[in-house]
């Protein structure tokens, strides 16, 4: 019961308090028109940290350049001290999307969260043997989500993303993605 309450509280926080930009992907690919300033604002990190983490001597960046958005183990100890350390792991999974309004669907997750009442919630269905229910998970192209559901077809390294719009769920299709699971 306590785990369900914690999961529901986390879902509410994520659905109302966080957006996709709150937790960044681990690496950003520079696009035309980007600058360190724009990237730092988008991912809520300082320009000096971006320069330090990427060993940049100037503000110059190039299209298609990969920019680290967090301190790595090889970064200096001063940058590690300025950012809280989070424990996480990467998993490559097959992903699909679902809606809460399909025929026979109740709209309520296996943890008791009502997706129909919270259509903007970022919830994924997982195999709890691979990703524990209640885990924070960053999915590229979807954002930060909570592992708040499990489905009978979700076995092994598969996830199913909740998307309230049927057309957007179909647009997601089936993709292989590397997700970041926070412990």
Describe this structure in words.
- There is one protein chain.
- The protein is of the alpha+beta class and 183 residues long.
- Strands 3-7-4-6-5-8 form a six-stranded mixed beta barrel.
- It folds into two domains: 27-69, Roll (Membrane-bound Lytic Murein Transglycosylase D, Chain A), CATH 3.10.350; 86-182, Barwin-like endoglucanases (Beta Barrel), CATH 2.40.40.
- It has five helices and eight strands; from the N terminus they run H-E-H-H-E-H-E-E-E-E-E-H-E.
- It has helices at 2-17, 36-43, 47-53, 77-82, 166-172, and strands spanning 27-29, 66-68, 88-98, 123-125, 136-139, 143-149, 158-162, 175-182.
Structure in a nutshell:
Keywords: Signal. By secondary structure, this protein is an alpha+beta fold.
Largest sheet, described in full?
6 strands, mixed, barrel
The run of helices and strands is: HEHHEHEEEEEHE
Averaging pLDDT over every residue, what do you get? 78
**Annotation field: number of helices:** 5
So what's the overall shape? elongated
Domain LysM: 26-69
InterPro entries: 3D_dom, LysM, LysM_dom_sf, Resuscitation_pf_RpfB, RlpA-like_sf
Organism: Heyndrickxia acidicola
Keywords: Signal
């Amino acid at each position: 019961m306590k785990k369900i309450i914690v999961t529901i509280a986390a879902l509410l926080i994520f659905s109302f308090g966080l957006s996709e930009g709150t937790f960044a992907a681990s690496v950003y690919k520079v696009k035309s028109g980007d600058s360190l300033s724009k990237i730092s604002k988008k991912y809520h990190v300082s320009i000096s940290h971006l320069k330090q983490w990427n060993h940049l001597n100037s503000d110059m960046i190039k299209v298609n350049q990969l920019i680290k958005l967090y301190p790595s183990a090889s970064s200096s100890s001063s940058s590690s001290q300025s950012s809280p350390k989070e424990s996480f792991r990467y998993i490559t999974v097959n992903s699909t999307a679902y809606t809460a309004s399909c025929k026979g669907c109740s709209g309520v997750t296996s943890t008791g969260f009502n997706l129909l009442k919270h259509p903007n919630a970022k919830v994924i269905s997982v195999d709890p043997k691979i990703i524990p229910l209640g885990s924070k998970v960053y999915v590229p192209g979807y954002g930060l989500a909570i592992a708040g559901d499990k489905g009978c077809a979700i076995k092994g390294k598969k996830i199913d993303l909740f998307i309230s719009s049927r057309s957007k769920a179909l647009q997601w299709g089936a993709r292989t993605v590397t997700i970041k699971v926070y412990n």
